Amino acid sequence: MWYVYIIRSEAFPEEEYTGATANLRQRVADHNAGKSRHTAKFIPWKLVWYSAFPDKYKALDFEKYLKSHSGRAFARKRLTEASKQKGLSRV
């Protein structure tokens, strides 16, 4: 399985990051350990949304879409806004 995920900084809630990985638990732990230069300055991170894909390339295509202008708008409106209001997290 491959996962597309969105994490939100607990210290800076306006900061979110979208990624893809085959090992979701380890990847979130890596973000919180400062192993990604793109996310290191906003730790700690909380997982707010993810989806599993049986195919790596479909996951990477969906990640690319979520990082586009329309994909960020879709994610904000449909994927993460509810978790922001309710404080939900998974994993």
**Number of structural domains:** 1
CATH class: Alpha Beta
Per CATH, the architecture is 3-Layer(aba) Sandwich
Instruction: Return residue spans where pLDDT drops below 50 for at least 5 consecutive residues.
Output: none
CATH fold annotation = GIY-YIG endonuclease
Q: What does the radius of gyration come to?
A: 12 Å
Strand content: 25-35%
Mean pLDDT: 93
Principal-axis shape equals globular
Oligomer state of the chains in this structure: single chain
Q: Pairing-aware structural class of the strands and helices?
A: alpha+beta
Largest sheet, strands/sense/barrel: 3 strands, antiparallel
Alpha-carbon distance between the two ends: 15 Å
Question: Can you describe what's shown?
Answer:
This protein has 91 residues and is an alpha+beta fold. The protein has a single domain (2-86), classed as GIY-YIG endonuclease (3-Layer(aba) Sandwich), CATH 3.40.1440. It is built from 3 helices and 3 strands, in the order E-E-H-E-H-H. Strands 2-1-3 form a 3-stranded antiparallel β-sheet, sandwiched between helices. A hairpin with a 6-residue loop joins strand 1 (2-9) and strand 2.
Layout of strands and helices, then pairs:
Elements: E1 2-9, E2 16-21, H1 24-32, E3 45-53, H2 56-66, H3 69-86
Antiparallel strand pairs: 1-2, 1-3
